[in-house]
Every structure is written in structure tokens, then in C-alpha cells.
Design a protein that fits this description.
Helix content is 68%, strand content 0%. It is mostly helical.
Length: 110
């Protein structure tokens, strides 16, 4: 007897406030750099206290991880899924690399 595959683990959905903090932090990280952007500045730009930011993200590194994961989930995974539908390995690789190169030239966040 075969069992159906286990469902994929559900991904927690970001709250509206987490997304707002992440958007502000991304802009600040791009402008000032990760190391030169204190969480107090992120909090101030969001209209929150530092404790308010830490309510949503346990650390600055967690916030950076969230940003990278969001980028992968929103931009990279769709490209990978699209490429996986191409049977020929060389064509699949060329298609993925072309789209990835275009992403890198048009989006400063990767």
C-alpha cells in the first residue's frame, strides 16, 4: 500500500508590520550597508520603538535572513520552477541563467 506524499510544510505568512519593517530595512541596508544600519534607525523610520522591531524580528540577522528568504521565495523560486519544466538540460540552464542575469541587472536587492 502506497501512502500519499506528506504535504509540504506550510510557510508562515509575514504580517503586514513585518513586511513594512523589512521594506524599510532593505532600503536602509542598500543605502548605508548592513553593518552601518542600526536597528534603532530601522525602528525610527518605521515609527516603532526598537523593542517594537524586536517583537517582529529576534535580531538584525533574523531580519536579514527574512529579506533573503522573501527574495528567494518571490523571485528565485518562480524562475527555478519555470526552468524545471524545460526538458532539455542545456536549454533549461540557459533559460534560467538568462532570467537570473536579467534579474541581477534590474533589481539591486539580490
Amino acid at each position: 500500500m502506497t501512502h500519499p506524499p506528506s504535504p509540504a510544510p506550510s510557510r508562515p505568512v509575514a504580517t503586514e508590520q513585518q513586511s513594512k519593517v523589512a521594506d524599510v530595512a532593505l532600503e536602509l541596508f542598500l543605502k548605508h550597508g548592513f553593518d552601518a544600519t542600526p536597528m534603532s534607525l530601522v525602528a525610527k523610520q518605521c515609527g516603532l520603538t526598537k523593542a517594537g522591531v524586536y517583537h517582529h524580528f529576534e535580531s538584525k540577522e533574523h531580519l536579514l535572513y527574512f529579506l533573503h528568504k522573501r527574495h528567494i521565495d518571490c523571485l528565485m523560486l518562480p524562475m527555478i520552477e519555470e526552468a524545471s519544466g524545460i526538458a532539455d538540460p542545456e536549454t533549461r540552464l540557459r533559460s534560467f541563467l538568462t532570467k537570473y542575469a536579467l534579474l541581477l541587472t534590474h533589481d539591486p536587492t539580490p
